[in-house]
Structures are given as structure tokens and as C-alpha cells.
UniProtKB/TrEMBL annotation:
Annotated signal sequence range: none
Identification of the protein by name: Phenylalanine--tRNA ligase alpha subunit
Binding sites annotated in the UniProt record for Mg(2+): E264
Pfam families assigned: Phe_tRNA-synt_N, tRNA-synt_2d
Classification via InterPro entries: aa-tRNA-synth_II, aa-tRNA-synth_II/BPL/LPL, Phe-tRNA-synth_IIc_asu, Phe-tRNA_ligase_II_N, Phe_tRNA_ligase_alpha1_bac, Phenylalanyl-tRNA_Synthase, tRNA-bd_arm
Catalysed reaction equations from the record: tRNA(Phe) + L-phenylalanine + ATP = L-phenylalanyl-tRNA(Phe) + AMP + diphosphate + H(+)
The keyword ATP-binding is annotated on this UniProt entry: yes
Location of the Aminoacyl-transfer RNA synthetases class-II family profile domain: 113-348
Native organism: Candidatus Jacksonbacteria bacterium RIFCSPLOWO2_02_FULL_44_20
Length: 349
């Protein structure tokens, strides 16, 4: 019966394929070949049976049997290639051969660049300080001379977290994801006395709309220097030296008057855009300049909040955007790449 032969074909196929996967060495492969493809093997016997059928049936069954034969021969070739490339089965495993290297990751470009800036500051006698990202409103705003309802808070209106215990004034907005690293100026001075020279790398959060140079989460590096007789001239010297040491003597900086409630006077420091060489691109909003940091002389109110005698000491502070400095350094034209997790980007560093 034609159906019996078709069933036999299907059985041979199932068994041969199942056994094929457990073949370990040349001897087993040869046994498998003889069993299914040999002169007295299962397929030869089937061809003999098929030969007894009428022409059309013979043609139909012959075609199916030939297809299976081809498939098994193909498997045979693959099996011998496999054992060849592994040597001759288990016995020939070379345990002295060098291992397959495990690919290693690298530090994220932002981390690499943060390490670089910190190394420059450390070499100039600065201490590295880190602190919390979830901050009390008191430190993020009030103690930095931005009392409740101060208009400057609007600019940094942010991700508030409801506190568990309602404060006495009935407002729940007690805790924020810090909008800048400046609160760490106050935190650091709780355990230090002047003179101090410190920098604070860390993550900040804002409600900014994202574009090529803005993210809602980004990194800043805060700086604080307090001593007797510290002036704006010292600040300009330090910041100019740091940017030149990071980028080369050709960098240009531009200092503009600006306002931050926690400094007086306050400045904005811009650096020439090296991505477009000041021709104008999306990163520098076609101005040729990139806003790099806010800075200024620490406000006497803030010095007093730190417990520092503002009659005796002066200081300067600055807050730079690490992301934008990193972008200029490596020639990255969109801040969002840093947070995309895209390996095509990350593998370049
Ligand atoms: C401040 O955050 C002040 N705390 C800086 C400061 C410190 C001033 C000490 C005076 C004394 P500003 O909002 O300008 O300032 O931010 C500082 C830098 O952070 C900017 O120059 C920019 O490089 C970076 N930055 C700000 N917002 C973003 C953002 N959304 N995405 C990426 N970088 C940002």
C-alpha cells in the first residue's frame, strides 16, 4: 500500500533526525550513515519496495524518498564538518588552547569625562565631594537665598516628591529631585571649615523640554572655593585654566553678567563651540557659543547660612554642565545619545 510506504518514509525521517542531534564523534556518524544511507540501510530497503509500485505511484514515492535522501546526506556533511572543526570528538579537546575572550564593557563616556575633569581639579588641590540626589527644598532653594515664592524658583520648578509627614505649614513639597548641585555647597560646609576647595560631580533633574542640548536628567559639576581674600580674578583664572587643560590652549571663553540668587556678582561662562568651529550648529543654537556654567562670588547670605563669617571670608562657586563639556570633547552632537543606551554610540568610547 502506498500509505504504508509514505508512513515508513516519515518514520525514517523522524528517527534519523532525532538520532542525528546526539552524534558525538566520527564513529557514531559512520554508524548513523550505514543505518540510514548505507547499501543495506533503511532508505535502500525503501527504494526496493518503491520499485514494485506502478509508474505514477513509483514516481510520487520515489520523489519523496529522494528528497529525504538528500536531506540526510546534507546532515551527514554538516555532522562531519562539526566534528572536524572541534577536532575528533571529545578525546581531542585541547585544554591548553587559549580561551575565547569575553567582551568587556567600558565606562560610559560621561563617567570617563567626569573622571577626567575630576583629575584636573584634584591636581589643582580640589577635594571631590558627592551627596544625595533627593534633596530637601530647604537646601535646594531656601538656604541658597531663594526663599519660598522667590521668582528664581520658577526657572527650576521641578520634580517634587510628596513627603510622608505633612510639614507644619501644610505644604507637601518638602523633597525635590535636586535641580542643581549647588545644595551640596551647604551640605559640604556642615562638616568643613574654610579654607575649602572642592568640586561636586552629580546628577540633576529639571522639567526642561528635551532637545540636542537639554535633558530632564543631566550631570553638573559644582565648585566651591572659600578663603580669605578670594576674588573674581581667582575664579576667572581657575576656570580658564581648567577649560584650557581639558580642551587645549585654543579654547575661548566668554564671561557674561548673570543672575543667580546665591552669588553676587553672578556670571555665565560660555565656551567656543568646537563642534561647528563657531559656524553655528544645532548644539550651539547657531550662536557659536555654548553656555557651559553659571558662576559667581558666594553671596554673604549663603556664607552665613554655611556658618562662615562673611566679614572674614569670601568665596567663589560655579556649576558646569558635564554633559555639554563631554559633547564638545568627543564631538557628540546630541545629548540624548548619552541616555539612549544605544550600543552603536557606546561602543565608540
Ligand atoms: C545652575 O544650575 C547653578 N546652580 C550654577 C551655579 C553654581 C551658578 C554656583 C553660580 C554658582 P544653570 O541653570 O545655568 O545654573 O546650569 C548650569 C549648567 O548646567 C548650564 O550651564 C548647562 O551646561 C547645564 N545644564 C542646565 N540645564 C541643563 C539641561 N536641561 N540639560 C543639560 N545640561 C544642562
Amino acid at each position: 500500500m502506498i500509505d504504508d510506504v509514505a508512513q515508513k518514509l516519515a518514520n525514517i525521517k523522524t528517527k534519523a533526525v532525532a538520532e542525528f542531534f546526539s552524534l558525538q564523534n566520527d564513529a557514531e556518524i559512520e554508524k548513523w550513515r550505514v543505518k540510514y544511507l548505507g547499501r543495506k540501510g533503511a532508505l535502500s530497503a525503501l527504494f526496493e519496495e518503491i520499485g514494485k509500485f506502478r509508474t505514477e505511484e513509483r514516481q510520487y514515492l520515489g520523489k519523496a524518498a529522494n528528497e529525504l535522501k538528500k536531506e540526510l546526506e546534507e546532515k551527514l556533511r554538516a555532522a562531519s564538518d562539526r566534528t572536524k572543526s572541534h577536532g575528533k570528538g571529545e578525546e581531542s579537546f585541547d585544554e591548553t588552547a587559549p580561551g575565547i575572550p569575553v567582551p568587556r564593557g567600558t565606562k560610559h563616556p560621561l563617567t570617563q569625562f567626569t573622571d577626567r575633569i575630576c583629575a584636573v581639579f584634584t591636581s589643582m588641590g580640589f577635594e571631590i565631594v558627592e551627596d544625595r540626589e533627593v534633596e530637601k527644598v530647604e537646601y535646594n532653594f531656601d538656604k541658597l537665598n531663594m526663599p519660598d515664592n522667590h521668582p528664581a524658583r520658577d526657572m527650576w520648578d521641578t520634580f517634587y516628591i510628596k513627603s510622608q509627614i505633612p510639614p507644619a505649614n501644610g505644604m507637601f513639597h518638602e523633597v525635590v529631585l535636586r535641580t542643581h548641585t549647588s545644595p551640596v555647597q551647604l551640605r559640604a560646609m556642615e562638616t568643613r571649615k574654610p579654607p575649602v576647595r572642592l568640586v561636586v560631580p552629580g546628577r540633576c533633574y529639571r522639567h526642561d523640554a528635551t532637545d540636542a542640548s537639554h535633558e530632564t536628567g543631566f550631570y553638573q559639576l559644582e565648585g566651591l572655593v572659600i578663603d580669605k581674600g578670594v576674588s573674581v580674578a581667582n575664579m576667572i583664572y581657575v576656570l580658564d585654566s581648567v577649560l584650557k587643560r581639558l580642551f587645549g590652549n585654543f579654547v575661548k571663553i566668554r564671561i557674561r553678567p548673570s543672575f543667580f540668587p546665591f552669588v553676587e556678582p553672578g556670571h555665565e561662562i560660555d565656551m567656543s563651540c568646537m563642534i561647528c568651529e563657531q559656524k553655528g550648529c544645532s548644539v550651539c543654537s547657531k550662536t557659536g557659543w555654548l553656555e557651559m556654567m553659571g558662576s559667581g562670588m558666594v553671596h554673604p547670605v549663603v556664607l552665613n547660612n554655611m556658618g562662615v563669617d562673611s566679614e572674614l571670608y569670601t568665596g567663589f562657586a560655579f556649576g558646569m554642565g558635564i554633559d555639554r563639556l563631554m559633547m564638545l570633547y568627543y564631538g557628540v552632537d546630541d545629548i540624548r545619545l548619552s541616555y539612549s543606551g544605544d550600543l552603536r554610540f557606546l561602543k565608540q568610547f
